[in-house]
Design a protein that fits this description.
This protein has helices at residues 4-9, 55-72, and strands at residues 17-20, 24-28, 36-42, 79-82, 98-102. The protein has 2 helices and 5 strands. Strands 1-2-3-5-4 form a 5-stranded antiparallel sheet, with helices on one face.
Length: 111
């Protein structure tokens, strides 16, 4: 399958890895929207959160987001976790991922 995040997860293409576990990677977003903009990417391909029934993995994604926020120094100042889903949700890469945004005040608006 020609999926960019599968290639990142299998290290066929390079990325800036912040942390890695058996099941997922956290990398820096190539087009950051805030000083800290990371992506939690499961190694297994799920097109969207709707296709994922692995609740352990979903919990691990949140645990990884917490750890990556700590490592990036935004734990105290605050950060936002976002999972975009399908077209109106703003999803552009159809391999499940969670954004971690921080390092600047984020507006209260959600879109
Ligand atoms: P979404 O719009 O929620 O699907 O988010 C996709 C994100 O992936 C965007 O923020 C892109 O900047 C990011 N992205 C796309 N290609 C890469 C890449 N090769 N390395 C890191 N981030 C990427
Ligand atoms: Zn994939």
């Amino acid at each position: 399958m020609d999926c960019i995040f599968c290639k990142i997860a299998s290290k066929k293409i390079n990325s800036a890895i912040v942390l890695e576990t058996e099941k997922l990677m956290v990398i820096k977003d190539v087009n950051p929207q805030s000083p800290v903009h990371l992506l939690v990417i499961p190694k297994k391909h799920y097109s969207t959160i709707l296709d994922c029934d692995d609740t352990m993995l979903m919990a691990e994604m949140f645990e990884a987001a917490k750890e990556a926020a700590r490592l990036s120094g935004v734990e105290k100042s605050g950060f936002r976790t976002v999972v975009n889903t399908n077209e109106e949700g703003g999803q552009t890469v159809f391999h499940l991922h969670m954004h971690i945004l921080g390092g600047r005040p984020l507006t209260g608006r959600m879109g």
